[in-house]
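QA checklist item 7 of 12: single-chain prediction sanity check.
[x] sequence parsed
[x] length recorded as 377
[x] structure emitted
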Amino acid sequence: MMKYLIYSLLILLSSSCSKKAENEKITTEKSTDSNVASLNEKQIENAGIKTALPEKKQISSVLKLNGKIDVPPQNIVSISVPLGGYLKTTKLLPGTRVKKGEVLAVMEDQQYIQLQQDYLTGKARIVFLENDYLRQKDLNKSKSSSDKTFQQAESDYQSQQVMMKALHEKLKLAGINPDHLTKDNITRSISIYSPINGYVSKVNVNIGRYVSPTEVLFELINPTDIHLALKVFEKDLDKIKIGQKILAYTNNMPDKKYQCEIILISKDLSPERTAEVHSHFGSYEPELLPGMFMNADIQLNSRSVLVLPDDAIVTYDDKQYIFFPKGKSSFEMKQVRTGTSESGFTEIISKEKLDNQLCVVNGAYSLLMSLKNKSEE
């Protein structure tokens, strides 16, 4: 009887161990196959699954930047009246196009009349003083006049020359040509002319207002030499150099690219650890205005990397995966890291060598859906 009980216990123990091993095997197989999607031939055909080997391609990384259009100081002109005056007429509005030499405004003031009067009076007096100086010089040579009289005549003549030169320059500063000034063309008004071709960006005055010499009437901009000022972080400064080409575009028209070239890299870092990089547009485009925000792509040095088509890569939980054929109708999903993307291809970074490994290049998303639906069952 005791012998029978021992045999029965051994049989039960053996049965229990075999069931436990079988359960462990099932669990292991289930965990092993959690990244494997199995499809039948019809499903593979409907999903359009295709495989191919990864390719080696020359691909260049892109540094994406943003900034705004800027105008160099020599292309911004502030118009003021050096002697002040009242604004008589102007037709300018912000955005008005102007040509070099065009009349921007007419100013008037009684000081212009006084300045012209002083010049013409001084011009008449200098003739008298010159003749007196020459006469006293001849008399002094023959000792017919004293040295003091000659020196006084010389001093008066030289002082008048200095005054005439100063008045001459003041008239030119006011916009009056002293060489053409006579008693018959004295004017109370002066014209202000545009020194550049461009457009008006600011109008700070109105008709009838008195403008002091320190006030700016108008601000003009010559847009033909606008720059694109970009912000570059400190960590990326070593990737750029003068002469590099840039493709710039606006948010409103991202498909329209503007060719630029880097002409200046700032050596000063801002508190945000960025430096300003100036680039010059290849050609003037009227739709590009100062202050406009733009994006820019800088093509960095190209390198040979292993790539797959973008359709071969799927994203799940912020991670990237690709699929490998495993047998006739199974496909295994493996996580990879991706690098630079260009022209429909993406760099694949993996610890495993994938050069000779077939990968799913079409239908990867269908495999992901099949795999995840299976895991939820």
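[x] summary fact logged: Confidence is low (pLDDT under 50) at residues 19-32.
[ ] second reviewer sign-off
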